[in-house]
Design brief:
By secondary structure, the chain is an alpha/beta fold. The protein has one domain: Rossmann fold (3-Layer(aba) Sandwich), CATH 3.40.50.150. Helices cover about 30% and strands about 25% of the residues. It has helices at about 1-20, 25-35, 65-75, 95-100, 110-125, 160-165, and strands at about 55-60, 60-65, 85, 105-110, 130-135, 150, 175-185, 185-195, 200-210. It has a seven-stranded mixed β-sheet, with helices on one face. The chain has a two-stranded antiparallel sheet with strand order 1-2. Helix 5 links the parallel strand 4 and strand 5 (about 130-135). The termini are far apart. Bound molecules: S-adenosylmethionine.
């Protein structure tokens, strides 16, 4: 009980810090204020869970920095009931934030062991997601089209299959948005791609970040062993 109060206070301070750093989407801040990030990190690292830093989660992967999660979620412009695909489940934290935003979440992770742990934590906390192990650089065509796709690993270029799985705009729905860090392994620019028609897209570039690499058929980086 005392520890959950302690985490709540730390979470509140983190939200203030993110706001000061320019995250001004109230719905995103509200979601971050709700998700217990400490549940997604190893017990030995829980005292660092609400610092604005990435932390190791095993398999040489990380839970992204809260600022990065907030920034990507803000660019994705998630609306309640949106279908959102996350590429790179990692710890499951970003998926939980998307659930708090009211999205229907589909998530893919290439490391089976990470996916298992993430889905166990998500289930324990009552977050419902549809997940699978595999190469997310190809997207997940079975559940397309998506209102939002967020890639949480750095790609060499924007993966074409992900663009094709974005929703085409119609009278009822806006076009889908894809948020993906693109560039060399040393650092990437956050790209936002909008689907504006059957064969048309618009792209914007945002801040620079440094992500672990997106590997796989469309990641642009060499495939390595997953287990
Ligand atoms: N979103 C995660 C979170 O909230 O903890 C952070 C993910 S971590 C920065 C990036 C993840 O992408 C890693 O777990 C990595 O294994 C995964 N990944 C890299 N390439 C992938 C691919 N082609 N398909 C699926 N997952 C991939």
């Amino acid at each position: 009980m005392a520890s959950s109060r302690k985490y709540q206070q730390q979470r509140r301070r983190l939200v203030e810090e993110l706001h000061e750093r320019g995250i001004d989407d109230k719905r995103v801040l509200k979601a971050i204020a709700k998700v217990p990030r400490h549940a997604f990190v190893e017990p030995a690292l829980r005292n660092r869970a609400y610092r604005d830093e990435a932390l190791p989660i095993g398999k040489r992967q990380t839970i992204s920095q809260p600022f990065t999660v907030a920034y990507q979620t803000m660019l994705l412009d998630v609306q309640p009931d949106d279908r959102v695909l996350e590429v790179g489940t990692g710890s499951g934290y970003q998926a939980a934030v998307l659930c708090e935003m009211g999205a229907r979440v589909f998530t893919i992770e290439r490391h089976r062991a990470l996916l298992q742990r993430a889905t166990d934590v998500l289930e324990d906390l009552g977050y419902r997601v549809v997940s699978r192990a595999g190469d997310g650089s190809l997207g997940w065509p079975a559940f397309a089209p998506y209102d939002g796709i967020v890639v949480t690993a750095g790609a060499a270029d924007v993966p074409q299959p992900l663009m094709e799985q974005l929703r085409v705009p119609s009278a009822k729905h806006d076009g889908g948005r894809l948020v993906v860090p693109v560039g060399e392994s040393g650092g990437q620019v956050m790209r936002r791609v909008y689907r504006t028609g059957e064969d048309s897209y618009e792209q914007e570039s945002h801040h620079r970040f440094r992500f672990v690499p997106l590997v796989g058929a469309e990641g642009g980086l060499e495939q390595e062993e997953t287990e």
